[in-house]
Amino acid sequence: MYDRLMAGTEKAGLSDRRQALLAQAQGRVLEIGAGTGVNIQHYPAAVEEIVFTEPEEPMALRLEAKLAAAGRSGSVVRAPAEQLPFEDGSFDTVVSTLVLCTVSDPVKALAEIERVLRPGGTLLFLEHVRADDPGLARWQDRLAPAWRRFGHGCNPNRPTPDLIRRTGFGSVDLEKGQLPKAPPIVRPLVTGRAHTN
Q1: What does each C-alpha distance from 89 to 8, 16, 24, 81, 113 come to in angstroms?
Q2: In this structure, what CATH number is given to the domain that contains residue 68?
């Protein structure tokens, strides 16, 4: 159902944003919360290895099927972003697209991402976030409880860029935009890179 719900948004520009972001992935890559594998087609051929994590079994099964159908090598690990079963400094790039809004503990998830990245590694992210506009942010706060139920735990008002900065990444570069064909409370979007020291 997720892929069908997002089809219009993907065609209206989200797929292009994914493509541009993931073109920057290099070396050994970890994608957290990979869902049904929407990003698989966007990874450059030069990427050495891709490890996908997904804690939800139905999504992980679809992810494995999509990975096999795409003919891409990679592995699927059933794990939440807050408990990544990898050694420190294991990856050159970590990818998070529309995931940090849903994790139960974003600070812990970001700390885990920073831990598994090698020094000088990169977090590539594309996330809908808390609005800069105070009026829209108030609506996000008011509607958040209902949206979390509707969106399987999705928080429309999460200040993800601030959380990334507070985690201790050495630098954070981001570009603001809008999630196309999305309800206003989840329209504010950021795409960017954060680098470990």
Answers
A1: 37, 30, 19, 15, 10
A2: 3.40.50.150
How far is residue 187's CA from residue 183's CA, in Å, rounded to a whole number? 6
Mean pLDDT, residues 168-184 taken together: 92
**Reported confidence tier of residue 12, pLDDT bands at 50, 70, 90:** confident
* Residue numbers of the domain that contains 30: 2-195
Residues 103 and 163 sit within 8 Å (Cβ to Cβ):
no
Look-up: residue for tokens 């990245």?
117
* pTM as predicted: 0.94
Q: Taking the alpha carbons of 58, 62, 68, 71 in that order, is the dihedral positive or negative?
A: negative
Pairing type for strands 28-31 and 49-53 reads: parallel
Task: Count up the domains in the chain and report the number.
Answer: 1
How far is Cα 186 from Cα 98, in angstroms, rounded to an integer? 11
For the packed helices 160-167 and 106-116, what is the interaxial angle rounded to 10 degrees? Answer: 50
pLDDT digits 0-9 by tens, 98-117: 999 999 999 999 999 999 99
| Closest to 157 in 3D by CA, of 182, 123, 127, 193 | 127
The rounded distance, in Å, linking the Cα atoms of 131 and 94 is: 25
